[in-house]
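Example (one chain per record):
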Amino acid sequence: MVLGLALVGWGACGGKETTVSQALAPSVAAVEEQVQLAMAPDAAPPVPASIPEEAAEPRASKKLALKLRSTPAGAAASVDGRLIGLTPTRVDLPDDGRAHDFSFVLSGHEPWRLRFAPSNAGVIHATLRESVTPDAAPTR
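Predicted structure:
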């Protein structure tokens, strides 16, 4: 492998004037040697270098299965503002320790809200109270 660069710099090799290809020659030679060894017919498969944890792709996180129920049934269930469906329903959330907003809304009933961080699979059951409508104003 030949690098056709003729850039000149100071200090790359102990203060002597060197070209980029001269400065990189030791590392280029090492890479070429590894490639030749890997291509040999009796070569063992290459062992990948370890990837630092921060550069590694995030692992698939564990999920928590939550059942969303309400009394009376049929309430619109939402998690973090996203409609999940009508109760009874189910949602899978990442097991990341983060708090989530759960809300249940049913016509004729007061909304029910809860914010917490689930730590295991289970059931969230909302008991919805009927809305109180003010008495009609007396007529004369």
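Caption: Confidence is low (pLDDT under 50) at residues 1-13.
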